[in-house]
Amino acid sequence: MKNPPQRPVPVIAAILAFCLLIFSGAAGIQAASIKGPLRIAFICSGSVTDGGWNQQGKNAILVVKKKLHAHVSILEHISPVRAVDVMRSYAMRGYNLIIGHGYEFLIPATQVAATARKTKFAVSGADTTKPGVLTLNFDLAQPSYELGILAAMLSKSGKIGFIGGEAIPSVVACYHGFAAGAKSVKPTIKVAAAYTSWDQPALSKSQAQAFIQQGIDVIYQNVDAASRGVFEAVAQANKSGRGPIYVFGSNSNQNNNPTCPRYTPASAVIRLDRAFLRVAQQVKRGTFKPGVAPENLQNGVCIVVLNPKLIGSVITPAMQQALARARRELLTGKLHIAG
Amino acid sequence: MTPSHNMFTFLSRQAVTAATPMILAGVGELVGELSGVINIGIEGTMLMGCIAAYTVTGVSGHGTVGLLAAIAAGMVMAVIFAAASVWGRADQIVAGTAMDLLGMGLSGMVWMMYQNWRENLGFSTALLHGSGFSPVPIPVLHDIAYLGPVLFDQYALCYITICLCVMTWWVLHRTRLGLIICALGDAPEACHAAGVRVRLGRSLCLLFAGASSGAAGAYLSIMQTHAFATNMTGGQGFVVLALVIFGRWKLPGLIGGCLFFGLINSLQQTLQTARYTSQNTALHALTHVPFQFFQMLPYLAAIMALAIMSRKAPGPRYINVPWPEAKT
């Protein structure tokens, strides 16, 4: 009779002990604060000169650099396919924090985070939990709701419109918020929606012209670099006497755009610098935790900024009161915007 | 004027506005292809025209100077392409792809440098008020019913494009020069035998194409929008390439194709809006149609038209064939 093979218990125990040691070490590293200057990599899929989302991200990361004296590396035009290699390379070079600026970086960040334990990963504009990644869920639906109220009160035709760059969840949420806000004031108001492009001002302009031709007199745009086309269409329409036609800005404060500042009463603004700074500080202090970070009206990251030059003339006290009431309800959680 | 009449006028006007840069770039590409050189780098050349026009207008404060800069930028791109494909005998498709990539990258880089430079000096990167072009309604003519707003209330470059089309048609069909251009693409040996310098002729045609593509870029950045955005042409250069084939290498066909594309595009944008705002129940039912369907329409129409029109398309015989042909 053959003896049963000897179980390699000591070997398994040794491997287990080794793994535990490694993981405890990794946990120790995760919790430890960073002594020297923070090393941050910022990756985006478009150009940092787009005048919109990516440029705003670059500016925000430069604020972090200035405030925390961090070492910052910015890489633009990175496709999600390339992102895995790029992120892995940064992690291997000892970067403390990698920020993927956009929903498209969620999967690449998750893949790299699984192996690069010393580096922290944050993805802006995403709304789902992935292991090892902090997603910054910018809730522009709340400020969009406020803009909807303003639009309904400004509109004389009873027709308002939304132009988005792409029908991704965060942009569609803006439309839903905008429509809900408008209908809360005027249930019969008609809210059109169209999606064009992030980087074709000509296309956005012709879409805005189609809106205006159909009688729409307040337009809310979220098209980044292409927003200049919408502003141009609104300026031309007002110049030709079709007005007043109003337009709202988004993501950054576009109230003082050079094309039609007199017809831009408000913008839905994401204070990216606040969000990035908080994440960077968490990494520096060793308090960074993966998960979903809601960035909204409550923590002051997503807000409505009114054009101070139009308060009193275009934006009446009644409008301001209605906005303040809605903001209170949103802040206290009395009001929930259905997606 | 009835609402439907109004709508028809609006759609037609939008179609002409959208088609103008494509026609402008297309006329140049047509001449280039007739001479035997296909330049798939129009997109990159248009982008260089966009950025050159925008930055020079921003600095000089004069749109005309910006337009000239765009034409110059387009010609520089054409010189590089001609050096590679006509004189260096590189494959035209490969060289054209390189020109596309060059234009996309270089225009973005110039834009970034321009922004940094202006911001360091404390200036806005937006065009100065009045330095870009606005539509120029032609007195009396723009009052003509329907045709007036459609054709005579456009940007200056639209009128220049109309003149350019007439001149190009006349040159191609009524002059010896036109005969030589077509012969460069159809029978370069005959041209050579007749004492025509084939490579020089092709290079000049490419220069014309570069200038018109550059001007088309200027139309987008300092006329239609007064703005620059990275890759703002959005594939129009590639659509032009398709429309040259759609038009069977004939100018009227090319113009018709561009107008058709512009019309379908403005129609889809209006439909996207009307389904929400119109009282018409049939239009209202379209709210359930995904917006991507509407966006697809111009491209679908272009593909269908290409499939139908390009059968037995009599293209230049020596297109994408270097001169002199390589000895085997």
Task: Explain the overall architecture.
- The complex is a heterodimer of chains A (339) and B (328).
- With 339 residues, chain A is of the alpha/beta class.
- Chain A is 43% helix and 19% strand.
- Chain A contains 10 helices and 12 strands.
- Chain A has helices at 9-31, 53-68, 80-92, 106-113, 141-154, 169-185, 201-213, 227-239, 272-285, 317-332, and strands at residues 39-44, 71-75, 97-101, 120-124, 133-138, 159-164, 190-195, 218-222, 246-251, 266-270, 291-295, 302-306.
- In chain A, the strands form 2 sheets. Chain A has a 6-stranded parallel sheet, sandwiched between helices. Chain A has a 6-stranded mixed sheet with strand order 7-6-8-9-10-12, sandwiched between helices.
- Mean pLDDT of chain A is 88; it is low at 20-31.
- By secondary structure, chain B is an all-alpha fold.
- Chain B has a domain at 11-233.
- The longest helix of chain B is centred in the first third of the chain and has 32 residues, at 3-34.
- At the A-B interface, strand 7, helix 7 and helix 8 of A face helix 1, helix 4, helix 11 and helix 13 of B.
Q: How far is it from the N-terminal to the C-terminal residue of chain A, by CA? A: 70 Å
Mean pLDDT across all amino acids of chain A: 88
Task: List the uncertain runs of chain B.
Answer: none
Percent of residues in helices of chain B comes to over 70%
Average residue pLDDT of chain B: 90
Quaternary state, please?
A: heterodimer
Name the CATH class of the largest domain in chain A: Alpha Beta
Order of helices and strands of chain B: HHHHEHEHHHHHHHH
Shape of chain A: elongated
Number of strands of chain A: 12
Q: Please name the fourth-level CATH homologous superfamily of the largest domain in chain A.
A: Response regulator
Structural class of chain B: mainly alpha
